[in-house]
Design brief:
about 160 residues, Nuclear Transport Factor 2, Chain: A, 4 helices
Length: about 160
Amino acid sequence: MKTVALVAGLLVLAPGAALSEGPSLEPTLADALKKFTDAFNSYDAKKVAAFWAEDGTLISPVGEVGKGRDGVAKVYQHDLDMIVKGTTSSFQPEMARKLKGGLVLLDLIHEMQNFHMPDGTTGTMKLHVVILAQGKGGSWHWLDARPYAFLKPPPPPAAK
């Protein structure tokens, strides 16, 4: 369970953004998401953290908090060391809500190929990531990112 949560945290940073489906993104935001994905797949914590605003935050699925670019880099590196290394990530936008002040709330599917599952197998892990992005002067930075995984629903109650 901790591994799944940690992986979800890394999804925010995952590379390989697929933008062919989902909402239409402003071209500069779509480009920023693609570059973020490339950085995420390069396994370089400093490159990944450069996408955050100087005072941005990342909270991983296991609750590790990164404040500022140095804090984000530390959280990403921790996830990289534990679960991201060797995977290939893509981010698929599911929703993009424009807000005032050049803000966009993104809801992304983070898919990680070649993920090492808790049972020892390798496969595809899908997580969700919510990012609050801010555009200024044609460039974008992540203010806040929250990767997470959905819990499996409990089985239906037995018939009596």
